[in-house]
Amino acid sequence: MDSDNIDLDRVLGAPKPRPFLDFLIQGTLAVVLLVALIYGIFEIGLVLGPLIPFAWEKQVSELALRDFPLATRGPEAEARRATLQRLADALVPYEHLPKGVTITINYSQDDTVNAFSTLGGNVVVYEGLIRRLPSENALSMVLGHEMGHVKNRDPISYMSGERLVQLVVSLATGDSGLASEVVSNIQLLTSLEFSRQAEERADLAGLTALEGHYGHVNGYRQTFDALEAWVADQGGSEPPEFLRDHPDTKTRIAKLAAYAAAHHWSEKGPLTPLSQTNYPPVSMYGDSSIPPQIKLPSSKPDTKSEPGPPDNYAPPN
Asked: b vs e for 269-288, b when ≥16 Cβ sit within 10 Å of the residue's Cβ?
């Protein structure tokens, strides 16, 4: 027998090499393990974040906001900020904030349609968003939502998770090359999931504050309608939900409607317009009435009820 022609793999029963398949299997396992590792590290950071005393968090935030680039200075901006602060103070009792946690409203005259909460109980509200909202009730929903993030310590939790992942990645990879880029993308998807969950919790906090302050929840839908209208005006379309930092709008509204119905909170009630008699203060504009760029609704209270959930509605899981 010619030993050179013997197929040892066939004689020994060994499988034929499958380099591509083996590479695919091993690569998939590596990615799964990496995702699990990043997710676990981020989760640890989320747990550690709220353990940081709020007083420490506030000290750090004051240094960061001191040079906040979009914060507008001057008497007009301060008058606007003070009005927002008074409204937030009226909502605070219904947020049930942890002991020692306070809310500080920051205002910017920038046209950005946004509001966000950051470290130290700071909430930033942009003029661009205020112009889009038709009632004080809708504005209260925005403030209550952002205060809900503060209540749940979401800013410090997110920062803690993000920084812990970055630290581990830097130590493991030297924070360079393709590995670092892949890890960053995985971290982004992980943080987006946390953000969506945080948004849902903040929505409920905002709705609770809205009902506590006004005795009804009429107006919360206006908040989402205004934001949806802005997106439409920009001609943009949102990406799939898993790539967003917030849940689907229709799902959010459905969950809020179900939550209100479960607590027997009425969606009927007067809407307070953002008029010169209550918002913003007339003194902010001197002898003039309302600046032309700000469009305000009629001062006549709107008692129109918004439609509630159908009788057979079941909240989504």
From this structure: bbbbbbbbeebbeeebeeee
297 domain-assigned: no
Asked whether residue 126 carries a pLDDT value surpassing 50, the answer given is yes
Q: pLDDT at residue 299 above 60?
A: no
Kindly state whether residue 48 falls inside one of the protein's structural domains: yes
Residue 212 lies in a domain: yes
Q: What is the mean pLDDT of residues 134-145?
A: 94
| pLDDT of residue 146 exceeding 50 | yes
Question: What total of structural domains would you count in the chain?
Answer: 1
What is the domain range of residue 137?
18-285
**Mean pLDDT computed over 191-207:** 87
Sheet of strand 104-108, all strands in order from the earlier edge strand to the far edge: 104-108, 122-126, 115-118
pTM: 0.74
Which pLDDT does position 277 carry in this prediction? 40
Is residue 307 assigned to a domain? no
**Higher-scoring residue by pLDDT: 66, 46:** 46
Q: What is the pLDDT of residues 167-184, one digit of tens each?
A: 777 776 665 554 556 556
Query: What's residue 286's pLDDT?
Result: 35
